[in-house]
Amino acid sequence: MRDMLFINGQWTAPAARGRFEVCDPATGEVFAQAPLGTAADIDQAVAAARRAFDKGPWPRLSGHERARYLRAIADRILADKDRLGLIEVRDNGKPLPEAVWDMEDAAGCFAFYAGLTEEMDGDQGEIIPLQDARFQSKVVREPIGVAGAIIPWNYPLLMAAWKVAPALAAGCTMVLKPSELTPLTALELAAICEEVGLPEGVLNVVPGFGSDAGQRLAQHPDVDKLAFTGSVPTGSRIMQMAAADIKNISLELGGKSPFVVFADSDIEKAVEWIMFGIFWNQGQVCSATSRVLVEESLYPRLMERLVAEAAKIRIGNGMEDGVKLGPLISETQHAKILGMIEKGVAAGATVVHGGRRPAGLDAGYFLEPTILTDMDDDNLVWREEIFGPVVCVRPFKDEAEAIRLANDSPFGLAAAVMSDDLDRCERIARAFRAGIVWINCSQPTFTEAPWGGYKKSGIGRELGRWGLANYLETKQITTFNHRERWGWYIT
Ligand code: NAP
Ligand code: MG
Fold this sequence. Notes:
This protein is an alpha/beta fold. Helix content is 39%, strand content 21%.
């Protein structure tokens, strides 16, 4: 395991010489030590990224040259996906096939942005038509500068890729702080960058605690842009910290996404997508469709099928064959979610399935797939993000009620609808107040398409060309036709 920080292309001991424990959520046991970066290390890393941006080759390379590095990174992730996947399983707990899938997605993200950075080479700037024909205005895009990235633990390498790949494609340099709960694959990414010969200081990786390293990165005056994925309270603090320097920020925050299922849906398809929408990655997915609304006439039959299928899910260590539900990330999350279920029940909710630690899995942070019903609009399990394998299901009478209930949330990340009537699906898709909508499915995510939320779910969009734009400044260059006279003072 790697026990140094990656700063300025060098493996560097943390300034305070500290380490922190990395735990396997399937056993609760410590299996590695990670280097503990503190504010002093963030200062070193930002200084390295600043030098690399101001004086180094990276922002001055052509898109085609940058793309060569990005493709090399993609190739190495792909070639090493099984080993990296195993690290991710131990660090995060997710089932191995999901972890390997994440590695493929992360590689795909680097390859996609390699393509976009190549396209930038042909970009001669956009000529803007002006009312006054004596002037010509051209718009060009330039890298924003030094970017900071603060990411969560639910998709450790993939969330890093969503930020590192577009930032590097744009010509920015970056300091990445992974979550203290899952620092390992970010350090592997640093090692890959070293192997492919990425110029020094272009990517710096500093694991550490949010309250120290994270806070320093968010407050650092030399960081031009901060990209954050995590919870709403931390996102709000990041915004306040960034305000001091008018730092450009993008925020990908939490959600409580609805899934509206009409009675004309195929019940088997509905059950499977509902399950994928909430049990995949143990429900620790920002876009999880955790509020399911089912048309009244389908509700009893659907509940019966959902409970029957949820009961069949194999729970266990993500390393074991056939496991579809691993442990939650930490003891804290486990206790928090059990507490939320308890409070939800006290406020009137009924546990239809699960709600407990599975029998026989006494170590680790396991929770049964959980199905709740009978909650009022203001029950906390219906309103608040649980971030676990807990789905709340309610019946609805008609389309109008479904839309009202779906949109009655402070969040607006994602939403899903299922019906055989595609006109109705399109109508509902337009009515949702959410940045991502799925029709007849839930969760599939594509590197090419924009990702981000309405309302408290965030600001800005990642992925696709929107993700690249996060790391670009817009410059307009206006030229006056020198054959003309201005004639204001001298006529
Ligand atoms: P979190 O507590 O907000 O942490 C996210 C990151 O912020 C971690 O690296 C954390 O470091 C750091 N951090 C914490 N306090 C900080 C501070 N004061 N200053 C700077 N950085 C700080 O969230 P989490 O519990 O790890 O992740 C779960 C949340 O992320 C959920 O709400 C989920 O919905 C959201 N999420 C959203 C998306 C999306 O795309 N919208 C994707 C994934 C997750 P430490 O690890 O050291 O605390
Ligand atoms: Mg945390």
